[in-house]
Fold this sequence. Notes:
alpha/beta, five-stranded mixed sheet, three-stranded parallel sheet, 7 helices, 8 strands, 41% helix
Amino acid sequence: MQVPAKGFTHGGKFHADDVFSTALLQIVRPDFTVQRGFTVPDDFDGIVYDVGGGEFDHHAEPREERYNGVPYAAFGKLWRELGAGLVGENQARLLDENFIQPLDLNDNTGEQNSLCDAIGAFNPVWDGGESADECFMQAVAVAKQILQKQLDAAQAVNRADDLVRKAYEESRDGIVVLPTYLPWKNGLYRTDALFVVYPSQRGGWSAQCCTDRKTKKNKLPFPRSWAGQPAEVIEAKSGIKGIRFCHASQFLITADTQQIAVEACRQVLRNNGRPVSE
């Protein structure tokens, strides 16, 4: 889809839908400008969205819904056309599920959403005398920053995936060791990996449990007897010197070295009757 240089959306009170739609179009085409109003001019030759009853409006029946029943708003319709070109098919789908669908749902049903409330707060107050169009563009500037950060994070995951897959191919006993901290969940989503070990951003090393993609639960949690305990208690119960922390939810530990973090994972495997390479 080629984005034209100008667009038209509804005037008056604005919402996260038309604001984020405009932000997306400006990211795709930086020289994009928008006109707001209540009736689309007959000779308008740009893109029309969230108004006018066209391809990128969502107010007429029957409303289009996703496979999971979440109805499309203008933002979701535009993302469906443009998202894959920005972040690839897989990340476009994940961004739709995790970021865009909640905004679409708010606009279509009024379901509570804090980000939508924050964008709505840019509307002029009833007795303030501010220009709605100027307030709209202020909201677009903020939405553009938020959306760009979402795109940056998705693109970073894409860059990390090859390194994560390589580490998985070299793993033993379901323990994947990464050379640096990377976004790893996407790369290991459909694998049999059990733990990921990586240099901690706070110093030392971390080991984290992989979750089952169906149940969303940790495949092999760290022992309950370690959870939330002081380092000396964890060391005593595990018999491993250098484990510094175990999260109360049993999904994460920190350790002094890579070797200690790996050995902690291996102990969990042994405790659960899993084979461990010697």
